[in-house]
Amino acid sequence: MNPAEPLVLIVSGPSGCGKSTLVEKLLELPGTLLAISCTTRPPRKTESGAKWYNFVSEAQFQEMVARGEFLEYAQVFGKNWYGTPRKWLDQARTQQKDLVLEIDVQGAQQVKKALPGAVAIFVLPPSRAELERRIRARGQDSEEEIGRRLERARQELLNYRSYDFAVINDDLKQAGREVQAVALAARCRVPRREERIGEILKSFGG
Protein backbone atom coordinates (compact mmCIF):
# COMPACT_ATOMS: atom_id res chain seq x y z
CA MET A 1 0.00 0.00 0.00
CA ASN A 2 1.29 3.42 -0.93
CA PRO A 3 1.20 5.54 2.25
CA ALA A 4 0.50 8.59 0.08
CA GLU A 5 -2.80 7.03 -0.94
CA PRO A 6 -5.77 8.18 1.15
CA LEU A 7 -7.34 5.79 3.60
CA VAL A 8 -10.86 5.09 2.31
CA LEU A 9 -13.48 4.44 4.98
CA ILE A 10 -16.75 2.93 3.77
CA VAL A 11 -19.85 3.20 5.95
CA SER A 12 -22.96 1.34 4.86
CA GLY A 13 -25.98 -0.41 6.28
CA PRO A 14 -29.78 -0.50 5.98
CA SER A 15 -31.78 2.69 5.53
CA GLY A 16 -32.65 4.08 8.97
CA CYS A 17 -29.78 2.42 10.85
CA GLY A 18 -28.09 5.76 11.62
CA LYS A 19 -25.28 5.80 9.05
CA SER A 20 -25.29 9.56 8.56
CA THR A 21 -24.96 10.26 12.29
CA LEU A 22 -22.02 7.87 12.55
CA VAL A 23 -20.40 9.40 9.46
CA GLU A 24 -20.58 12.74 11.28
CA LYS A 25 -18.67 11.10 14.15
CA LEU A 26 -15.96 10.04 11.69
CA LEU A 27 -15.80 13.55 10.29
CA GLU A 28 -15.05 14.85 13.79
CA LEU A 29 -11.62 13.24 13.43
CA PRO A 30 -8.99 15.62 12.01
CA GLY A 31 -7.88 14.86 8.48
CA THR A 32 -11.12 13.42 7.11
CA LEU A 33 -13.06 14.36 3.98
CA LEU A 34 -16.62 13.39 3.06
CA ALA A 35 -17.30 12.14 -0.45
CA ILE A 36 -20.57 13.80 -1.47
CA SER A 37 -22.67 11.41 -3.52
CA CYS A 38 -24.76 12.25 -6.56
CA THR A 39 -28.35 11.07 -6.73
CA THR A 40 -31.30 11.35 -9.07
CA ARG A 41 -33.86 11.26 -6.26
CA PRO A 42 -35.54 14.54 -5.28
CA PRO A 43 -34.31 16.18 -2.06
CA ARG A 44 -36.34 15.68 1.10
CA LYS A 45 -37.77 18.70 2.89
CA THR A 46 -34.92 18.66 5.43
CA GLU A 47 -32.17 18.40 2.81
CA SER A 48 -30.22 20.97 0.89
CA GLY A 49 -27.76 20.30 -1.90
CA ALA A 50 -24.01 19.86 -1.45
CA LYS A 51 -24.04 18.67 2.19
CA TRP A 52 -24.78 14.96 1.78
CA TYR A 53 -25.88 14.79 -1.84
CA ASN A 54 -25.63 16.60 -5.12
CA PHE A 55 -29.06 16.26 -6.73
CA VAL A 56 -28.86 15.74 -10.49
CA SER A 57 -31.22 14.72 -13.28
CA GLU A 58 -31.13 11.19 -14.65
CA ALA A 59 -29.72 12.54 -17.93
CA GLN A 60 -26.87 14.26 -16.05
CA PHE A 61 -26.20 11.10 -14.05
CA GLN A 62 -26.01 8.91 -17.15
CA GLU A 63 -23.66 11.39 -18.80
CA MET A 64 -21.37 11.10 -15.77
CA VAL A 65 -21.52 7.30 -16.03
CA ALA A 66 -20.61 7.49 -19.73
CA ARG A 67 -17.60 9.69 -18.92
CA GLY A 68 -16.41 7.23 -16.25
CA GLU A 69 -16.70 9.81 -13.48
CA PHE A 70 -17.98 7.47 -10.76
CA LEU A 71 -15.94 5.41 -8.33
CA GLU A 72 -19.14 3.42 -7.76
CA TYR A 73 -22.80 3.76 -8.69
CA ALA A 74 -26.01 1.78 -8.37
CA GLN A 75 -29.75 1.98 -8.87
CA VAL A 76 -31.76 1.64 -5.64
CA PHE A 77 -35.27 0.18 -5.48
CA GLY A 78 -35.26 0.07 -9.26
CA LYS A 79 -35.76 3.82 -9.61
CA ASN A 80 -33.23 6.31 -8.18
CA TRP A 81 -29.52 6.27 -9.00
CA TYR A 82 -26.73 6.96 -6.51
CA GLY A 83 -23.03 7.32 -7.21
CA THR A 84 -19.74 8.53 -5.72
CA PRO A 85 -17.73 10.78 -8.06
CA ARG A 86 -14.12 9.70 -8.47
CA LYS A 87 -13.03 13.33 -8.00
CA TRP A 88 -13.34 12.93 -4.21
CA LEU A 89 -10.59 10.33 -4.20
CA ASP A 90 -8.38 12.77 -6.13
CA GLN A 91 -9.20 15.56 -3.65
CA ALA A 92 -8.41 13.34 -0.68
CA ARG A 93 -5.08 12.46 -2.28
CA THR A 94 -4.27 16.13 -2.95
CA GLN A 95 -5.31 17.26 0.54
CA GLN A 96 -3.70 14.21 2.20
CA LYS A 97 -6.91 13.35 4.02
CA ASP A 98 -8.83 10.16 4.69
CA LEU A 99 -11.93 9.77 2.53
CA VAL A 100 -15.27 8.81 4.10
CA LEU A 101 -17.94 7.22 1.90
CA GLU A 102 -21.54 6.66 2.98
CA ILE A 103 -22.80 4.16 0.41
CA ASP A 104 -25.04 1.10 0.12
CA VAL A 105 -24.01 -2.55 -0.03
CA GLN A 106 -23.76 -2.59 -3.83
CA GLY A 107 -21.52 0.46 -3.77
CA ALA A 108 -19.37 -0.94 -0.97
CA GLN A 109 -18.71 -4.09 -2.98
CA GLN A 110 -17.70 -2.04 -6.03
CA VAL A 111 -15.31 0.13 -4.00
CA LYS A 112 -13.73 -2.87 -2.24
CA LYS A 113 -13.11 -4.46 -5.63
CA ALA A 114 -11.52 -1.28 -7.01
CA LEU A 115 -9.70 -0.37 -3.77
CA PRO A 116 -8.94 -3.56 -1.78
CA GLY A 117 -7.28 -1.51 0.96
CA ALA A 118 -10.51 0.35 1.75
CA VAL A 119 -11.93 -0.30 5.22
CA ALA A 120 -15.62 -1.25 5.17
CA ILE A 121 -17.82 -0.69 8.24
CA PHE A 122 -21.29 -2.22 8.33
CA VAL A 123 -23.80 -0.47 10.59
CA LEU A 124 -26.60 -2.64 11.96
CA PRO A 125 -29.77 -1.74 13.84
CA PRO A 126 -30.28 -3.63 17.12
CA SER A 127 -33.40 -5.35 15.75
CA ARG A 128 -35.99 -5.31 12.98
CA ALA A 129 -38.55 -3.76 15.34
CA GLU A 130 -36.21 -0.89 16.23
CA LEU A 131 -35.36 -0.26 12.57
CA GLU A 132 -39.05 -0.10 11.71
CA ARG A 133 -39.63 2.32 14.60
CA ARG A 134 -36.86 4.61 13.33
CA ILE A 135 -38.14 4.56 9.75
CA ARG A 136 -41.68 5.36 10.89
CA ALA A 137 -40.42 8.16 13.15
CA ARG A 138 -39.07 9.99 10.08
CA GLY A 139 -42.63 10.25 8.77
CA GLN A 140 -41.46 10.24 5.15
CA ASP A 141 -42.51 6.84 3.81
CA SER A 142 -45.74 5.11 2.83
CA GLU A 143 -46.60 1.67 4.22
CA GLU A 144 -45.50 0.14 0.93
CA GLU A 145 -42.18 1.99 1.09
CA ILE A 146 -41.62 0.96 4.72
CA GLY A 147 -42.19 -2.68 3.80
CA ARG A 148 -39.78 -2.36 0.88
CA ARG A 149 -37.11 -0.79 3.09
CA LEU A 150 -37.42 -3.52 5.73
CA GLU A 151 -37.14 -6.27 3.12
CA ARG A 152 -34.12 -4.55 1.58
CA ALA A 153 -32.59 -4.29 5.07
CA ARG A 154 -33.00 -8.04 5.53
CA GLN A 155 -31.25 -8.68 2.21
CA GLU A 156 -28.43 -6.24 3.04
CA LEU A 157 -27.83 -7.86 6.44
CA LEU A 158 -27.01 -11.13 4.65
CA ASN A 159 -23.90 -9.41 3.23
CA TYR A 160 -22.30 -8.63 6.60
CA ARG A 161 -19.41 -11.04 6.04
CA SER A 162 -18.12 -8.92 3.14
CA TYR A 163 -17.30 -6.12 5.61
CA ASP A 164 -14.23 -5.63 7.76
CA PHE A 165 -16.05 -4.30 10.83
CA ALA A 166 -19.59 -4.38 12.22
CA VAL A 167 -21.01 -1.64 14.45
CA ILE A 168 -24.38 -2.25 16.10
CA ASN A 169 -26.06 1.12 16.51
CA ASP A 170 -27.92 0.47 19.75
CA ASP A 171 -26.26 3.13 21.88
CA LEU A 172 -25.27 6.10 19.71
CA LYS A 173 -22.36 7.26 21.89
CA GLN A 174 -20.86 3.76 21.94
CA ALA A 175 -21.39 3.30 18.20
CA GLY A 176 -19.73 6.67 17.56
CA ARG A 177 -16.70 5.65 19.62
CA GLU A 178 -16.50 2.37 17.73
CA VAL A 179 -16.45 3.90 14.24
CA GLN A 180 -13.80 6.37 15.36
CA ALA A 181 -11.76 3.52 16.86
CA VAL A 182 -11.91 1.64 13.55
CA ALA A 183 -10.64 4.71 11.68
CA LEU A 184 -7.82 5.35 14.15
CA ALA A 185 -6.76 1.70 14.09
CA ALA A 186 -6.76 1.68 10.27
CA ARG A 187 -4.48 4.71 10.28
CA CYS A 188 -2.00 2.72 12.39
CA ARG A 189 -1.64 -0.17 9.97
CA VAL A 190 2.03 -0.91 9.40
CA PRO A 191 1.97 -0.30 5.61
CA ARG A 192 0.54 3.18 6.21
CA ARG A 193 3.31 3.93 8.73
CA GLU A 194 6.14 2.49 6.63
CA GLU A 195 7.72 5.83 5.72
CA ARG A 196 7.57 7.18 9.28
CA ILE A 197 8.92 3.91 10.68
CA GLY A 198 11.79 4.14 8.20
CA GLU A 199 12.63 7.62 9.49
CA ILE A 200 12.63 6.34 13.08
CA LEU A 201 14.92 3.46 12.14
CA LYS A 202 17.32 5.91 10.49
CA SER A 203 17.48 7.87 13.73
CA PHE A 204 18.80 4.66 15.34
CA GLY A 205 21.48 4.42 12.70
CA GLY A 206 19.84 2.07 10.23
Q: What would your notes on this structure say?
A:
- The protein has 206 residues and is an alpha/beta fold.
- The protein has a domain at 8-36 and 97-203: Rossmann fold.
- Helices cover 45% and strands 20% of the residues.
- The protein is built from eight helices and nine strands.
- It has helices at residues 19-27, 58-66, 87-95, 105-114, 128-138, 143-157, 172-187, 190-203, and strands spanning 8-12, 32-34, 37-39, 53-55, 70-76, 80-85, 98-102, 119-124, 165-168.
- The strands form two sheets. It has a five-stranded parallel sheet with strand order 2-7-1-8-9, with helices on both faces. The chain has a four-stranded mixed sheet with strand order 4-3-6-5.
- α1 crosses α7.
- It is globular.
Q: How many helical stretches? A: 8
Number of strands: 9
Please outline the major beta sheet. 5 strands, parallel
> Shape, please?
globular
Strand content: 15-25%
CATH class category label of the domain at 8-36 and 97-203 = Alpha Beta
Structural class: alpha/beta
Give the CATH superfamily of the domain at 8-36 and 97-203.
P-loop containing nucleotide triphosphate hydrolases
Which strand order spans the largest sheet, edge to edge or round the barrel? 2-7-1-8-9
What's the assembly state of these chains?
A: single chain
Helix content: 40-55%
Assign the CATH architecture of the domain at 8-36 and 97-203: 3-Layer(aba) Sandwich
State the distance separating the first and last CA atoms: 22 Å
CATH topology of the domain at 8-36 and 97-203: Rossmann fold
- What Rg is obtained from the alpha carbons, in whole angstroms? 18 Å
Poorly predicted sequence stretches spanning 5 or more consecutive residues: none
The string of secondary-structure elements, in order, is EHEEEHEEHEHEHHEHH
